Structures are given as C-alpha cells and as structure tokens.
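Teaching assistant here, posting this on the class forum so everyone can see the example we discussed in section. The complex has two components, and the goal was to see what a joint structure prediction looks like when all of them are supplied at once.
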Amino acid sequence: MSMKTWLSKIDFSQLVDALLPVFATFAALALGAVMLLVLGANPIRAYGALVEGAFGSGNAIAETAVKAVPLLLVALGICIAFRANVINIGGEGQMILGAIFATVIGLSLPNWPGWVVIPLAILAGFIGGGLWGAIPGALKAYFGVNEILTTIMMNAIAVQIMNFLLRGPMIDPAQAELASKIPQTAALEAAFRLPRWAPTRLHLGALIAVILAFLVYILLFRTVLGYRIRAVGQNPDASRYGGIRVRRQIVIALLLSGAFCGLAGAIQVYGLNYRMITDGSATGFTASAGFNGIVAALFGQLHPLGAIPASFFFGSLLVGANKLQRVMQVPSSFILALNGLVVIFVVSSELWRRRRQRKRRIEATSKAENEPPLVPESEVTS
Amino acid sequence: MNSEILTVTILVGILASGIRLATPYLYAAIGEAFGQRSGVLNLGVEGQMLLGAFFAFYVTATTGNPWLGLLAAIAVGAAMGLAMAFVTINLQAEQGISGIGFYLFGLGMSTLLFQMTMGTVETVSGFSPVHIPVLSDIPILGKVFFSQNILVYVAYLLVPIAAFVLKKTNIGLKIRAVGENPEAADSLGVSVSTVRYITVTMGGILSGIAGASLSIALLNVFQQNMTSGMGFIAVALVYFGGWRPLGILLGALLFSMVNSLQLWMQVLGVPIPSDIAVMLPYILTIVALVLTVQRVRAPSALTKPFEREG
C-alpha cells in the first residue's frame, strides 16, 4: 500500500475527535499560565520545573509512574461507571475502604506466607471498595437517589471511619504509647510487600494496573456484561425493551467501579507505605487520587487503554508539583486548581465532538438520499 | 436547682449554635434552588463557598472592614457563577462533571491563594453580634433568636423573600417555566439562557456569601477546605426541601441542630468518639435523601442543556 492511499485511510475528523481532550488540556494549561503570571511566577520557568521534576531523571520517571498507579486504577473504575452513565465521585471513600479491608487481612494473618496474603489482601481491597460503591448504586437503582450526592457523602463517612480506626482500634501500638499519636496502623510483615524495581519505588502494582486496564477493555467491549453496561449508559429505555435489567446493571457498574478504587487503596498500602497512614485531613490517605482519577479518566475519553497515558500524564503533574513548590515557591495546590480547569475544559470540549458527529450524520443521510440505494460507492464511480 | 440551670443553659446553647450553623446552608441551598428550578444543577457550590470564604477573609484581614470582605465574596461568587453559566449554558457541558471541575478549582485555588498570601492561621474580627433592642432582652429566647450577627438575620429573611420571588413574581414564573419546559417557555418568547444566566450567577453570589458567613461571621478564621462538604450538603438540602425555600429552611435547621448537638456532646464529654459524631450529619443526609426522593418530583429539565431545534 502506497503512502498516499495509507494517508487517505485515516479518518481525519475522527483523529480530531480523539485529540480534542489534548487540545482542551492545552487550553487549561494556558489559563494556568495566566494564573501563574498573576501570582507573580514566570509560567515558562514554572512549567519547565514541572517537566524537569516529572521527567528529569530515571528516578523522576519512576516516581511519576508510582503516582500514576492509583490514578489509573481509579480511572478504570470511573470508566466503568461513567460508561453506564453513573457518575461516581466516591473514589476517595472507596479507596479508603479498600485499604482498610486489605490492611485488616495483612495485620490479622502475620504468619501466613506472602503469596497467600497478598492476593487475599488485593481481593479484600476489591471487596471493600465494591461494597462502598454498591451502596450508592443500590440507592440509585432502587430508590432513585442521586448517586453524585450519595457518593460524596460516602467519602465523608469513609474518612471518619478511617480516622476513628487509625486513632483507635487499629492504631500502631508504638504510636499509642507516644504523645504524637500519628494516625497509622502497625507495619505489615516484610514478606507482604509488593516487589520493587530497586533502587526506585516503582512497584509491582504498576504492572498489575496496566494488565487490569487491558482486562477492563475486554470487559467493557468484548463481553456481554460490558455490552449491557454500555447499553444502559446510552439508552436505558431501549435497554429495558431489549430485556436488560437496567437496575441490576447500575448496581453492578457502581460495585465494579468502587472495587477498582478499593484496589487502588489496597495497592497503595502493599506497594508503597506498607501500612495505612493518614494525617487526619480528608485527603490524608488518598492524596486526592479518588478525584484526580476522574480527571485522568475523562482525559482518556473514558477508554480503559486511554486511561494509561492519561494517568501517566497526571502523575507527572503531581510529581512535577513538588519541584514547582521547591524551585518556584508555588504551592502544590496549584495542580489541584489546574486539574479542576482541565475537567471543565475537557467536558466543555465535548460540544464540538457532538456538533461534528451531528454534521457527519446529516452528511451521511443526505448522501444516502442522493444515491441509488444498496449500490456500493465504488461501483457507481467506476 | 443547679442541674436545671445547667440543662437550660445547654439547651439554649444547642439552639443558638444550631440557628447560627444553619446560616451557610441557607445561603448556599437557596442559591442552588434557584439554579435547579431553572434546570441547572450546580455542583460547584463547595468551590464557590471556599473562594468566597477566602476572599472575604483576606479583604477583611487587610482592610479591617467586614463589609468590604462581604463585597469581595459577592464579586468572586458572581464571577464563578458566570463561568459556570457559560460552561453549562453556552458550551452545554455535562453539569455534574463540570460542577466537580469547579469544585476542584475552588478547592485548589482557595488553598493556593491562602498559602501564598497569608500562610498561617489567624483570626480576623468579622461581623459582631447585633443585639436587637428589647427583643434580645427576653429571657432565654432573646439570646437564641435576637443576638446573632447580621448575616444570620439576612439568611433567615432570605427564605420568605425567595419563596415569594419563586411563587408570586414574573421572574419566578419564568424561572419555573424554563426549568419545567424550556421549549414552551422559548416559544412564548422567554429567553431560556438569560433566565438561566441570572439564576446560576445569583447562585454563585449566594454561595460566595455562604462562604463569607463562615470565614468572617461565624468562625472568623480561614482554613484550607474549611467547608468540608457543606456545599454538597447544601445541594442535598435542595432535594430534601423539595426545591422549596421553606423545605430548605426545615432541612437546614434539622442538619445544623444535629451538628450543634454533636458539637455540644463533644464539649460535654459524652463518651462517643468525635470521628463517629462528625459522621452523623452525612449519614443523616443519605437517609434524608432516601426518604424524600420519591415524595417530590425534580424540575423536568434539570441537568438538560437547552438548544433550539434546527
């Protein structure tokens, strides 16, 4: 195939659609640059520091990947929920519950071998997060309660449960003796730690997350369950006529969504901190990954494989933010504000996609009207 | 005798702080109700409150005048409201998700500005209590109802005003028409986008005031993420109150009384872990949503962008 025919095969309008979130993100970064200027920081130097902090060395790239792991797992969960048109804002709480369940397994089976405990703990994280997602799912499906509000309330409840447990029943016995009383559990056995790629902190969780991204892709686009979830998201009425139990799919979607967020929490414990630890604030354990994962999922166009580069990109922003703080004295909360802008811009950019889709549809129908039916285009022209 | 006095003191304390604590919920939820009645779900309330709280606090701290602080909160609330209106009305963005974007922006921005301008937690002298003559001298009740600060009084005045505007005025009729059947309203010559711009911007202003009521009237401090979910509870209160100002008032009072009780239990040393007590209002929100959701119907066009055919 010659270069020319190969080029003509590319559907440019679909390519533009695919790149829309990238354009939107650049627009958000540009607005962020204006904000930096107003705050008295040189935006070029600031973004330079950001890039250097995230990619300046092998270790920096490894750190970016480490930050990307929870984002990717949360983003996978968000993909599943949003595809069913269920808006899960509860990633924060689901991560916390997953981490609590997984930590309980590790702490209560100290003498068991790692190859038994680690899979058990990951499963427990899956269940804990799934449970925390299934509750708002059931409330939406069977009572019609707005899931955005309930998932946010479940976040607040999870934070209080965590604070209660880590300051009370589950507190590290060593900390209980001290005046500082840092809210953390005892450390897990060394045998339970996920392997690391020394000397970096990059752990096996990164590989697990990427494999899961492919599995979620297969789930959503190659299985009956995935088909049902997407059908419910696109048209619940038609799905009901088609014999799909819509309510059940809503519960399943939020359960799975929560389960992946719970997994993110479990892997933070077993891959990174080797104990559950917080600082008493709402985002002390999660570092806002439950929110930032939503941003990554949207950036990846709610596609599980798109979530991989998207998570890496937002992971780089988080790592770069530390450098930004050190070099430019711009607090890392700048990145949170920037992520908010990215969400707004990416969601707004959907307007152009819809307009172009409509235009394509109109063109296609008018074309069909002008041509004799059922005759392929090639035969008409030749 | 002594224990009786103590009981009365505690009850008065719970009531008085309950009435005060309802203030931010009232502003935010009534603003949100206007937006939702016109068909726009604004989930950015929390972010708008945080920015309002910060700007009110910053301007009050630098000028020493809480009225200027309030003005700053109104201005930033209006700007956030206008931005939200542009994104949801002109760009027709998904309202739930863009609202979360505005929340993250407000949370990050208020923290960033606070860290860059002030950094440490300090108190400010905001609005002081206004003792209404004669009425505030009534034993017990006077202290509960008539010795609050100006923003508390205005919040309660807002309830009948909002109910009147929505029910009895021309603009109220337009708001409801646009929220129930935008196509019909449009064909009768009502500009759907103008009405929605007005309600969403007003919602932003009221959320800004809600934030200011925290930082320069009730607590007189600013802390990062100081609203800790109050904006989202305000959105829930709109559902709970059936989109009516009076229902919102009842919900806001119920919530703040529970919160006040919870705070007093901690003060009095009731043996309940504080983390569990703090959880109560959130659990109550979920229960309240479940109980009320099937009783009242939401505005038909809620979260649906409007676009003329053709």
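For the discussion questions: The domain at 72-314 of chain A is CATH 1.10.3470 (ABC transporter involved in vitamin B12 uptake, BtuC). Residues 333-370 of chain A form the longest helix (38 residues). Think about how each of these relates to the inputs above.
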